[in-house]
């Protein structure tokens, strides 16, 4: 079955990100939630399985988007908190979490099971009286798509790390090498059309990217893994909408115009069109597990 969602939000919403380029922020958030967000489900599940997320695990998700990764953790019994800079996505995440709890007959436990906050209210994510520190911190939006896309992650980690006990795992995610990521050719459009092509162009993924972020945050690496996360779309139009919802192409849109960027993305997708009209792009992502000091 073709997947119809997605992998990365390279605006990443880690912290203090520039406003999205969109005439309708709500539509953009829905495109992310309905088309793009699910592409990284294999990554979420691999991490949760490896770290044994289960009933009672306290998870803090940085750049939680519209909340799919948190919902998967909550389905395992975890208590989840998410922060994001995109308020439209947070609104969708709240709707999803509430609906999920209602289906399970747990709506009266919403405050205890899940909390969703804008990134400028990270302090409100601190464990309150009677609550233990976080058992896991995740930053699932992959870095390595455009140069500098991890800048907002550092401040978010600086605020999040003190909310966990010593030795708590922190998971960082990144794009794999270009030769393992079919979407690489499409991402290059962002740099070619942007006003800073040298700084914005898709660059080869460096193995030490995640380790460098961890080191700057004072974290100690403690394992890593790779996960196949293909990007699959029902048709070319859905693919263009999903990819635009990531924010990777915002600079290109500001420099040129949305119509041109849509055209360029559409043309770059041609090699990945299948006979039935679907779009399929195999990708590999890498994650790093690091420990808090």
From TrEMBL:
<feature type="region of interest" description="Disordered">
    <location>
        <begin position="1"/>
        <end position="20"/>
    </location>
</feature>
<dbReference type="GO" id="GO:0032259">
    <property type="term" value="P:methylation"/>
</dbReference>
<dbReference type="Pfam" id="PF13649">
    <property type="entry name" value="Methyltransf_25"/>
</dbReference>
<feature type="compositionally biased region" description="Basic residues">
    <location>
        <begin position="1"/>
        <end position="12"/>
    </location>
</feature>
<keyword id="KW-0489">Methyltransferase</keyword>
<dbReference type="InterPro" id="IPR029063">
    <property type="entry name" value="SAM-dependent_MTases_sf"/>
</dbReference>
<feature type="domain" description="Methyltransferase">
    <location>
        <begin position="59"/>
        <end position="99"/>
    </location>
</feature>
<protein>
    <submittedName>
        <fullName>Methyltransferase type 11</fullName>
    </submittedName>
</protein>
<keyword id="KW-0808">Transferase</keyword>
<dbReference type="InterPro" id="IPR041698">
    <property type="entry name" value="Methyltransf_25"/>
</dbReference>
<dbReference type="GO" id="GO:0008168">
    <property type="term" value="F:methyltransferase activity"/>
</dbReference>
